[in-house]
Amino acid sequence: MHKKEEIQRLGLQIQQQSILIDNIQSELRKVIVGQQIMVNRLLIGLLGNGHILLEGVPGLAKTLTIKSLSATLAAPFSRIQFTPDLLPADIIGTMIYNQQRNEFVVRKGPLFSNFILADEINRAPAKVQSALLEAMQEKQVTIGEQSYKLTDPFLVLATQNPLEQEGTYPLPEAQADRFMLKVVVGYPDKKEEQLIIRQQVQGMALPVINQVATIADVMTTRAMVKQVYLDEKIEKYIIDIVFATRFPEQYGLAKLKSMISYGVSPRASIHLAMASKALAFLEKRAYVIPEDIKAIAKDVLRHRIGLTYDAEAENITSENVIDEILKSVKVP
Questions:
Q1: How far is it, in rounded angstroms, from Cα 243 to Cα 260?
Q2: SS3 of 230, please?
Q3: For residue 104, what is the enclosing H or E element?
Q4: What are the structural domains, with CATH classification, of the chain?
């Protein structure tokens, strides 16, 4: 079968399968006011098998969104409030002694769910952060001498509050690299805020979220997302963007050399490819276009580019650097 015919066949399958995603989105819209980018990125993480780091002030419906998403699939959900006194055993589980049976038995922690909200991840010390990040990477945890597989899908949505930095433990850059996307959540607009006030002041009960898909549906959809066509020219475009963060002078961006202390890792290339495939699927397309790469580039790269003191002194952000790179790298 020719490539063109394959893409057309996949396109028809995607049209049918995307009804599931439309149903999930319509259920979420029943309770989430605005925040379309956050919902979209959460679905990209779900379909692209990647975890998400959310940065935003409190009260922006982060908990409600992931809880509602788990309800649309009737999947187990855990919310873990990260605090300075949290221990790794509090999240992965521990061995406890059973007196009746005269033996140690495993008590599994809240990580044994499909959807995990790690609230204010930067409030917990490094040991706890690394226990979570290891589980994210390996999809398993070790309790005592035994390893336990985590069930698929396993999606971690970690939040961090950008306001209070006192008494927090910033996520190290190498560990932040394990998140597919870092999404910056903004405030609602005036109309959305007015609707939020009305809902809360009138004491309206939140609509019931119905199950509209199953975990098996998610796994089928993920397999389809992997088949989304990524042309060699698009692959090279991804590689050029990634290499421009490492060797900016080779792309006519010598001015960025003094601003970037280190470029992005190979994980960025993988996640940029997977996230763009998931985005194409959400747009009901069987192939990736350069606009998909541009649309998702900031979310994939913003937490992976290291800035120098000079850049920070001049208030230059990683977003500014990404904008410059996207302007300069040739689009296929």
A1: 12
A2: coil
A3: strand 103-108
A4: 36-189 (3.40.50.300), 228-328 (1.10.8.80)
Return d(Cα 318, Cα 168) in angstroms, integer. Answer: 22
Residue 180 clears pLDDT 80, i.e. is over it: yes
What distance in Å separates the CA atoms of residue 165 and residue 150, rounded to the nearest whole number?
A: 32
Per-residue pLDDT tens over the stretch 57-85:
777 777 888 888 889 988 888 999 998 89
Q: Taking phi first (over 0 means left), then psi (-120 to 50 degrees means alpha), and beta for anything else, what does residue 321 get?
A: alpha
158 bridge partner residues: 53, 118
Residues 6 or more apart whose Cβ sits within 8 Å of residue 21: 43, 47, 221, 281, 282
The two tokens of residue 158 are 């970690």
Strand 77-81 with 115-119, pairing = parallel
What pLDDT shows up at residue 166? 61
Cβ neighbourhood burial of 313 (10 Å; 0-12, 13-18, 19+): exposed
Q: What is the rounded distance in angstroms from the CA atom of residue 226 to the CA atom of residue 47?
A: 9
